[in-house]
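Hello, quick one for you while I still have it in my head. Could you read through the record and tell me how the tokens relate to the sequence? No rush at all, and the record is pasted right below.
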Amino acid sequence: MVERRLLAELPAAPARILDVGCGSGEMTLRLAAVGHRVTGVDPAVTMLAATADRLAARPELADRVQLVNAGFDSLSLDGEQFDAVCCHGVLMYLDDPGEAVARLAGLVAPGGLLSILAKNRRAVGVREALAGDSETACRLIVSGADRSVGNLGRETRGDDPDVLDRLVAEHGLSPQPWQGVRIFHDHFDDTWAPDPAAYAAALELEWAASSRSPYRDLGHLVHTLARRPGRSRS
């Protein structure tokens, strides 16, 4: 879902893209595969090593990908700005998104995009409820909790989509309509093994619901997309 929207909004390749918190390189390599020049940044050496291993298996992408070992506190790009800055699955591990959003926004060139994929605070408790853990779900919902334990067994923090829109706007970017991500299939059984037609139908269902309330409010994740006014260099 996120890739589909990004590709529709990005300028023609080769755009210059920064992937902050690139992890094992899934999005970095997908964007490079369609012709973009991508700088992947991650504070974990093990994650960058995994990305490097995947890149080694795709030698045709080598000249389009640069990997940098850094976190928000140590990220230094000599004033460089990018046609798109992606930060997916990172804010949920930070106590306060404000400083991170400010740093990310400053890296977006005129006409460029900021793409943030965060845990959706509005849906905290939904996963627990649908898994049958009513006690935990009720506690989270009644208390208005912004945190819950994720699939990896680690407590992560959620952001409200409206707050993310306000934060990006405070730094000169124009927020686009946000989308909910992992609305329905997040709750499918682990044994779900659809045929290609069923999988395609599930993706279209997610896409249709992603921009429509109340469905998008139930997405486990929220995709915030914002553009800096001005003309892109690409």
User: Anything to note?
Assistant: The longest strand covers residues 108-119. The longest helix spans residues 196-210.
